[in-house]
# Entry
Amino acid sequence: MRVTRRGFIQAVGVSAGAAAVARGQLAKADLGVGDLERWATPEESLPPSICQQCPGGCGLVARTLDGELAGIAGNPLHPINRGALCPKAYGALQLLYDPKRLRGPLARDGARGRLRPVGWDEALRRVITQLSQLRAKGLAHTVAILGGQYRGYRDTVWKRFAEAWGTPNYVRVRCLAPEQPALAHQLMQGTTSPLSYDLAEARCILSFGVGLLESWLGPVHASRAFASLRGGADRPRGRLIHVDPRRSHTAIKADRWVPIIPGTDGILALGIANALIREGLYDREFVEQHTHGFEDWVDARGQRHEGFKDLLLSEHGLLTVSGATGVPVRTILEIARDLATLKPAVVVGERGPSYGRDDLHTRMAIHSLNALLGNIGATGGLLVQAALPLTPLPPARQDEAARRGLDRPRIDGAGRGRYSLVTSAPQVLPERILAGDPYPINALLLFATNPLVNHPAKEALARAFERIPFIVSFSPFLDESSATADVVLPDSTYLERWQDDQVTHVAGFTCFSLAGPAIPPRHDTRNTADVVLQLARSLGGSIAESLPWERFETLLGAGARGLWESGRGYVISTPAEESLRRVLERQGYWVPEFKSYEEFWKALVERGAWWDPTGLPVGRKALLRTASGKFEFYSTALKSLVDEAVKREGTDTPLLSALGGRDRGDRLYLPIVPIPGRTERGDFPFLLNTYRLVTRPLGGGGNQPWLLEQPAVLVRAAWERWVEVHRETAEKLGIADGDAVWVESTKGRIRLRAKLVAAGLPEIVSIPLFGGEGPSPNDLIANETDVVRGFGLLNTTRVKVTKA
Amino acid sequence: MKWPALIGVVALGLVSWAGFRLWVPPEVVQPIQFPHKTHIELNLECTSCHERAEKGSVAGRPPTALCLSCHSAGEGTGEIKKVQAYEKGGEIPWRRVWRLPDHIFFPHRTHVVVAKLKCQTCHGPMETLVKPPARPLKTLSMEDCIGCHEKAGASVEKVAARARGPASGIRPLSTDCNSCHR
# Structure
């Protein structure tokens, strides 16, 4: 072979080129292997967090890979859920990664122009300018804060801001207020902190429409208690009796389901009380020694008063009760005997929706059963939690403008007249804002609520919003209410921010949960608590002095110092360490685990909660804080409230009309529910019953598809809203399963798919409160306020159903 | 002749009267004219008041407290007022109407709960009465018991045969003397 000069040069060139290409590829391949290794072994961390989808406050463990959230699991150390979770918890992933989340603050061009993205500085500047101008004009009280369902230090921050700023209008829109005691407990026992039901230790639970296994205060905690009731290794099997017009999940799991005509729960409770007294099954010792108003009594002025017993026995005979409630006499007797023989027994009547017209007295009647069973302050009955030993904060500083503002009446009229018993009455907001009564609202701050969807008078509220010159929303989404805002300052989701939780419904221990951000915020969002602190700093003066903390975590740290200094309780730990501490506590020793507060704080952040499993005042003294020091069948606290209303307003008529138009006699203060007369059904023959699903989180869950696809296995429904109709009713109306129907009330009508159910009362139709597609039952529900808790009356609307 | 005939007639009358009293049980007068019909029409089951029929061998009579749990107050008929008079204490002195011979053991619970017999099977149409029965509506003889046990026993055997072996949950029915004569 002959090698030419040209050929040689070509060969060298080709060889060099080939070598260069091969080398480059190899280098790339090398780099790829590195990536692959890194991808296959990402940096994993498991920070604790707290589920905020409902008031349960379950402990979470967030699994993050290279700083991205990859999964959610229950925190096995957390005493509320011990590693278990309900389906809602997993929805957090879809909440976090929702593509519709706001990327950063928005502000409106001009008065009612388009919302456009702006920087945080500009957005905050606009808010501060508007608020400062109002304060300078002496209109601090015309700023209203509308808050949803949240607890702990986030509430503290808003409350202090309102107090220091000078507005009485911090209005909460929510169904349950877990941090407050139930009004019946407050009026009959004088308690100022919430009571907890010791479900796990009870042998018999009687629930009046409380969805223990669905959507009560803490579904996971209640489910664990139910498991213990049913299958505890060291005790006989207990019984759950559930009273509910609808055959719910709890009804199916219960040992006995008692269908009842809606709104007559109090009458049934009195029937059971009658049977307990008649058959001598009540706790005589407790009733004689620790109650007031059971028998006829004479007051200090020598005036004779009727006792609970005689009134009850004379007016609530079992046949009368049976006729009013639809519950057979025999069932009433059997429930009474179960309660008396399966001790300890506890009666739960604390649910979200109102029981109807006589709501307060219904709750009092239900609670009076607990006194008849003598379970107040007893294991397996009603307990009170020790207050969390958090560092107390000094009172908020108030300047002259703040004092003037706080002296003005509230826009919702809570605490006066008809609404004397409630701390918030958001139902009246539309009419009050539209009428400018008692004054116009100039600025509205919306936090953790979407009232233009949730409010029963949402159309009127939307008109009212148009009258408000400046609206600020803190929602992470551009929901219906935020879309009307002038400035949107998006909050981070609960996995991206510092947060605490102070759960009050658990029995047997106190618990403070704490979590740092599991991951940094995915978008340009900020923790609203931090934003409020920043606003306070910028507004200066006494407002800045009242909220002096640089960051929210500084406030959390300052509060948690009290836990460390209290010399009791523990940061949650492994079961082995926990058992050792319990043994030591039984022998009277408390052993500190940490040498300094810094160590304590570090452990608290790493493990997720502090709890005190032993330091509980379960004695009866702690639970009976009334004027008489006894459980009061005759509520002197309610009498004082009525007397104060007369003193303050010159009349008690609005309050009495709110309590069902009762006479001013003794029975106003006794747990006596009158037997209603027969009502004509008229054009709307069915009663609408709304209920909350286990898979419905607080915000509705419309952006969490995992929750929408598994809402109701009982009726095999998902994604779209539906209406449950009894088979008998459906047959009469010619409706088949899955047919489209119109559900109509005096307010409006909505089109839904019918799902036929075989059990329950035929004159009831049920619609779930559910975040899925389709019209909401709010389009049917009349905007009436439950005067006891300030929430809308969800289950008193009459409807008719026709085939679409 | 007159006197012996008169004595004979009187003696015959006495013997007839004694025989009648021995043969027919005496009329029972209850302290309160309780209407079963009214109560059944209010959707009360028999065992709502006669609750021990489901729990023990002797059905007994309802305690007064149970009557008072419905009838403790309010306007009512004279009979309800009589019930209310027992409010202060004491039991209504109901008188027993049905009585089986002392040597018969008849457990109510077994018949009502296990065999699910209707009360009327033995007691007759009580739900139609507007006042308490003066005498049992139905007099049971041993043939009634045997007849029922044989008939029901045959159907139990059929079920067992269909199940090809001892069917669980089915209680054998006995016509053995010792079953009742204990």
Q: What stands out?
A: Residues 5-40 of chain A form the longest helix (36 residues).
